[in-house]
Structure formats: structure tokens, C-alpha cells
Amino acid sequence: MVSVLALLIVLAGLGLVAYSLFGENSPLSKAVSTATSDEEVAASAPKETTLKLTVPKMERVRDLNVYDTPWDDESALEAGAQHVQDTGFPWEDEANVFIAGHRLGYLGTDSYLVFWDLDKLEEGDEVFLTDSEGTRYTYEVFTNYVTGPYDWSVTEPVSGKDIVTLQTCTLPDYSDRIIVQAELTEVEPGEGAEPEEDEPERDEPAQYEPEPVPVEQAPLEPGAAEPLPEEPLPEEPLPQEPLPEEPLPVEPEPAAPVQEVEPLPVGPAQEAQPLPAEPAPAAPAPIG
After folding, report:
1. Sign of torsion, CA 166 172 173 175?
2. Number of domains within the chain
3. Residue 57 pLDDT > 60, yes or no?
4. Secondary structure of the chain in the HEC alphabet?
5. pLDDT in tens, 155-165
6. pLDDT > 90 in the chain, percent
7. Which CATH number does the domain housing residue 61 bear?
8. Longest dimension (CA), the chain
9. Contact 99, 114 (CB under 8 A)
10. Which pLDDT tens digit goes with each residue over 108-134?
11. 196 lies in a domain?
12. What's the pTM?
């Protein structure tokens, strides 16, 4: 009896351990779910990470190149603006896309005065990000404040929101940081983005079928011969007249035999006898 009870206690303990490892809310299940989600996001992410930033209310932010670099790499700040690496991209869930730009910058580059008027943004102003595939992300400003240079909490994600954070220095001593945050409100897929699975199929255009063209009969000119009406054929065959009889051929009677005449023998040539001379006519008597 004691051994059976001990066996049941052991089985119950194993069941609790298994539930804690493989239950819906267990750390192992969450880790597997997170890894699967990360793989799906990585498969659908654009190959090129450079973004373009547009803020209509800011004078110099029009399709500004935003380069993805580590926080201590200032080469991106000198060329345009910097997307701080590992702070998320707009195509990721609950990302805080953290972008920093110079307040003064360098003359002759895209960094010159690029975030000069960042402090002018107010609640409701729009911010646009465009990825390399042409997908456009629209954000709406919900906060604008100043914080210290070592406040890294501004780079952390906000639960339940997809946001973008813009940062620049304060004037005149650059001692603090201006922080503007905006929340994602709309996503417009670009031409290079793959369509979603639930997108309705487009109807194929109907094939072109040419309409029949009516043929008009040209009117007859005056004096032109009109076609004769067709007479119906007689149902019964017409009587045929007997052909006249041809006379039989008459055989010719045999002709009488012709007697052959032997040719006369040809004798020696005879001398030609002179013909007798005819008397000359008498001369007419003179009339006197």
C-alpha cells in the first residue's frame, strides 16, 4: 500500500514538472513562440535596412536617409540621420525605431541643421518612414519632452505600441536631449513588398471579343440590271420526245472491173513530113 502511494506521489510530481515546462504560459512555450515569431519577421523583412524619413512640419526632413549603425558610430550622423542599432524596425511588432540627428550638423551634408526645428513638433503632427521596398509607415506624434544624455529608457519599446523616437541636442550647450515620440497609425505596402495571404484575389480582365460589323448592301444604280427571281424547279420531270431514227448505212455496189489497156509499143522515131503548102489566096481584083 505504501509503495503504491509513493508511486502516485512520484507520478503527480512528474506531471507538475511537465506542465511547468510545456504548459501554455511556461517559459519554454514562450521561448518557442518568440523564436518562431522572430523567424517569420526575419523572413519578411527587407534585405536593405536603410530607411527614409519625412516630417512635413520640419523644413529639412524630406526623404532623409537614415542609416542603421551602432550607437557609438557617428558616421551615419554625419551623412544624414542614425537609426540606433537593435532598437527595432518599423516592420517589427512593438518596435521603438530610435532615430538621432544633429541639431547643427556639417555644412554641405544632409546632416546640416537637419533636426534644427525638432522642438517645434506637437501632438498630432505626422512622421513618415519608408523602407527599401517602398512600404510607407505613418506615425502620429503623442509626446515631446527633454531628458538627460544618459536616459536610455527612451530607446526601450512601449508595450502594445509601435513607435518611432526622434532625438537631437538642446541649445546652446548640447547638455540635454529633445525627445519626440510618435505612434504608428497606418501602413501602406509598396510595390516591392509581398502581398499578404488574406489579400483578395484580383479578378482577371475579360477577354476581348470583337463585335460583329453589319454589312450594308449598296443600293442599285438606276438602269442597273436587277437579279432575276429564281424559278422553282418542277417537281415532275418533263416528258422527253423520242429521238428521230437514223437511216441505216447502205453498202455501195461493187464497181465493174476495168479492162486494162496495154500500152502501144513505141517504134523508131519517124521523120516529120512537111505539111503541104496551102495555095495563097487570090489577090482581089481591082475596082475600076
Report:
1. negative
2. 1
3. yes
4. CHHHHHHHHHHHHHHHHHHHHHCCCCHHHHHHHHHHHHHHHHHHCCCCCCEEEECCCCCCCCCEEEEEECCCCCHHHHHCEEEECCCCCCCCCCCEEEEECCCCCCCCCCCCCCCCCHHHCCCCCEEEEECCCCCEEEEEEEEEEEECCCCHHHHCCCCCCCEEEEEEECCCCCCCEEEEEEEEEEEECCCCCCCCCCCCCCCCCCCCCCCCCCCCCCCCCCCCCCCCCCCCCCCCCCCCCCCCCCCCCCCCCCCCCCCCCCCCCCCCCCCCCCCCCCCCCCCCCCCC
5. 999 999 999 99
6. 48
7. 2.40.260.10
8. 219
9. no
10. 999 999 999 999 999 999 999 999 999
11. no
12. 0.55
As a whole number of angstroms, the distance between CA 129 and CA 87 comes to 15
Q: Which three cell numbers stand for residue 138?
A: 505613418
State which residues form the domain around 143: 51-188
CA–CA separation, 252 and 90 (whole Å): 128
Answer whether residue 241 shows pLDDT above 90. Answer: no
* Cis amide leading into 172 (omega within 30): yes
